[in-house]
């Protein structure tokens, strides 16, 4: 057997992992060696007879765990983008081991004693601002992880962390399996009436791949809403599709959600906080549960009022079809109808103008050129983890190479739903590394030879995820702990949301939105109608998002020891009590498939999107009104914010760009809530 490729640094450009050499059987041994090596490195730090110094303790800690870092970056990615039974098995084995490993470091009394000692003398150490911040952040992380607890409490903490890690993995695997199993199988093409010929062909092909030859299969997206609901004319098919989506994993994951919420509340109590939400938010830019609850409660009432007005309008349209009561499975369908009637915008008519390659090169990359002077060269010679994943080299205006961007845009059975950014390599001056970042989308693959035509929403997602990619690529920090997107959850969506503005900037839109056959630009009147229609459906979008947010919030503001008997009942009551229960609008995610909060890192953190949007809307206004050119504005935004990562207080970075603290006015105006 050849040597495990994780045991030594990659020799590829920017240390791109050597994917061609990596096999599933390399993961477990690499994890085992990676964890053992890091513990040995830490033992060497604590055994050092010299008194603790910043270099022999903090810097040594930053440098530790190289093998683990390498395998973790590749494996985390593999789990998301191309999983298999073998990979799932490794994941289930490794999750509790990793939780125990992190506890072994954070609960190491000798290590914490050195950090505590340095922290106590931090003013006398003569540290530069980023180094001082490293010491403070590490100290905070150790305290928040239980470093100051007594032995019995630490023992309980280890048990809680191990069980939570295992449950999170099971939850995720249940969602994957249930989402596949809940795909809607239909016998005849008639039932798909309303879908395009391409979509019907794709459903037939999907059926063939899944072993339902001669039938049609609609696979589910990760959210409650499914895109086909806007188009299917057969009401009973819509009803079955939405029911399949909403009922996913309820039986297996409801009890897990209850158990996890209970364990998290207990852990928060051990760590000195009243609830899990209080524990989480204390280390976010929001700072307190009151701040979060305050913003959310300001939004609920106006959002629900708008949604009720929308519902009345849609109910009228539905009544014309003999529907007496507008149901959740009717909303998207009549919304699309009313949108077409009122704004004459046909979502399907736009798609020919949004061909993936064009949107990517002449839209997303083009905007990055305008604002930041970047250029992109595809490197087909570099192999990523899957044939669909493409590698691009990113260069500065003066030709200096900045890093690598990996784009993986298509859906496949082995990939989880949604869209996200991730890093394979993080920038750090200490390690001399530049960033290797990835964007993942789930655009359905067309038949061979057919162009990839995006929806308006998919174009937005492409710009959004690329905003995260830029945050990673522009990172210019010394310590890996602060690299790029390693900022608080309620800040990290801000740069990505800001990047969405380029999608509709006239000079960018004109450059990419061209008909894929004729090359004609998107007609100006269509653009105007799109812009006018943007506000339509804002009530629905805000309510479905807030409902999911308040659900997350309800689970994680449960006091310690409060018993929940039934997840669905809890969910219904939580939405009712938060004043966000609109009968025809289900939350964007229901508890049983709310991966962000039960298997991702967003527990008590789903509020982050709207919290970040306050900064986003404020910054977009700044871009338009600051009197500088686009290029100059881009440079300020990059220098003062994107490049800083977490190496300084993120709100200080915001103030350095905009010149003052954030204001909520622009967000409320944008969402029609003012
Ligand atoms: Zn995002």
Report what the structure shows:
With 674 residues, this protein is mainly alpha-helical. The protein has helices at 27-47, 54-63, 66-81, 85-106, 109-120, 129-144, 151-181, 197-209, 235-246, 250-270, 276-281, 289-319, 328-343, 347-350, 356-372, 456-473, 489-499, 506-512, 524-534, 538-556, 567-577, 595-598, 608-625, 630-640, 650-658, 665-670, and strands spanning 184-186, 216-218, 375-378, 390-395, 401-410, 420-425, 436-443. The strands form two sheets. It has a five-stranded mixed β-sheet with strand order 3-4-5-7-6, with helices on both faces. Helix 1 runs antiparallel to helix 2 and helix 4 (85-106) runs antiparallel to helix 7 (151-181). The longest helix has 31 residues, at 151-181. The N and C termini lie far apart (65 Å). The model has no long low-confidence stretch (mean pLDDT 95). The protein binds zinc ion. Zinc ion is lined by residues 464, 468, 493, 496.
């Amino acid at each position: 057997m050849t040597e495990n490729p994780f045991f030594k640094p990659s020799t590829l450009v920017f240390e791109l992992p050597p994917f061609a050499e990596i096999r599933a059987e390399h993961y477990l041994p690499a994890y085992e060696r990676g964890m053992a090596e890091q513990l040995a490195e830490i033992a060497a730090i604590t055994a050092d007879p010299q008194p603790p110094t910043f270099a022999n303790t903090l810097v040594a800690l930053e440098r530790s765990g190289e093998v683990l870092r390498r395998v973790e970056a590749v494996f985390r990615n593999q789990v998301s983008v191309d999983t298999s039974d073998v990979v799932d098995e490794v994941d289930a084995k490794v999750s509790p081991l990793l939780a125990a490993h992190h506890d072994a470091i954070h609960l190491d009394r000798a290590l914490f004693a050195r950090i505590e000692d340095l922290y106590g003398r931090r003013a006398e150490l003569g540290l530069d601002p980023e180094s001082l911040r490293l010491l403070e952040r590490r100290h905070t992380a150790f305290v928040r992880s239980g470093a100051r607890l007594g032995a019995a409490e630490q023992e309980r903490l280890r048990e809680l962390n191990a069980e939570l890690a295992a449950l999170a993995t099971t939850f995720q695997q249940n969602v994957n399996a249930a989402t596949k199993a809940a795909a809607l199988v239909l016998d005849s093409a008639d039932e798909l009436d309303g879908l395009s010929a391409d979509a019907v062909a794709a459903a037939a092909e999907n059926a063939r791949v899944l072993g339902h030859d001669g039938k049609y299969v609609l696979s589910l997206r990760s959210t409650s809403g499914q895109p086909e609901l806007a188009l299917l004319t057969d009401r009973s098919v819509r009803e079955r599709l939405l029911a399949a989506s909403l009922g996913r994993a309820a039986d297996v994951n409801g009890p897990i959600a209850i158990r996890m919420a209970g364990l998290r509340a207990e852990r928060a109590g051990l760590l000195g906080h009243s609830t899990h939400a209080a524990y989480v938010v204390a280390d976010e830019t929001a700072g307190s549960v009151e701040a979060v609850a305050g913003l959310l409660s300001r939004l609920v009432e106006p959002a629900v009022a708008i949604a009720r007005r929308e519902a009345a309008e849609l109910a009228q349209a539905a009544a014309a079809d003999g529907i007496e009561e507008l149901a959740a499975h009717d909303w998207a369908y009549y919304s699309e109808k009313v949108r077409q009637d009122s704004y004459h915008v046909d979502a399907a008519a736009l798609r020919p103008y949004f061909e993936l390659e064009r949107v990517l090169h002449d839209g997303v990359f083009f905007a990055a050129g305008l604002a930041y002077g970047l250029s992109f060269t595809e490197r087909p010679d570099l192999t990523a983890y899957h044939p669909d994943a493409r590698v691009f080299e990113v260069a500065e205006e003066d030709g200096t190479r900045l890093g690598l961007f990996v784009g993986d845009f298509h859906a496949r059975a082995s990939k989880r739903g949604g869209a996200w950014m991730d890093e394979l390599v993080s920038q750090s001056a200490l390690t001399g590394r530049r960033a290797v970042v990835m964007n993942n989308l789930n655009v359905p693959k067309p038949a061979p030879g057919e162009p990839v035509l995006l929806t308006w929403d998919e174009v937005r997602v492409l710009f959004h995820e690329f905003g995260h990619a830029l945050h990673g690529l522009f990172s210019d920090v010394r310590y890996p702990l602060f690299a790029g997107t390693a900022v608080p959850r309620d800040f990290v969506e801000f740069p990505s949301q800001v990047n969405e503005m380029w999608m509709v900037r006239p000079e960018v839109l004109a450059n990419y939105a061209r008909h894929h056959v004729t090359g004609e630009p998107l007609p100006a009147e269509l653009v105007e109608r799109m812009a006018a229609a943007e506000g339509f459906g804002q009530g629905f979008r805000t309510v479905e998002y807030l409902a999911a947010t308040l659900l997350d919030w309800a689970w994680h503001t449960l006091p310690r020891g409060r018993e929940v008997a039934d997840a669905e009942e809890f969910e219904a009551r939580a939405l009712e009590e938060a004043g966000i229960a609109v009968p025809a609008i289900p939350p964007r995610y229901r508890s049983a498939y709310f991966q962000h909060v039960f298997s991702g890192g967003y527990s008590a953190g789903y509020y982050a999107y709207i919290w970040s949007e306050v900064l986003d809307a404020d910054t977009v206004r700044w871009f338009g009104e600051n009197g500088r050119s686009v290029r100059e504005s881009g440079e300020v935004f990059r220098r003062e914010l994107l490049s800083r990562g977490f190496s300084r207080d993120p709100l200080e970075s915001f103030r350095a760009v905009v010149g003052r603290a954030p204001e909520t006015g622009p967000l409320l105006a944008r969402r029609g809530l003012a």
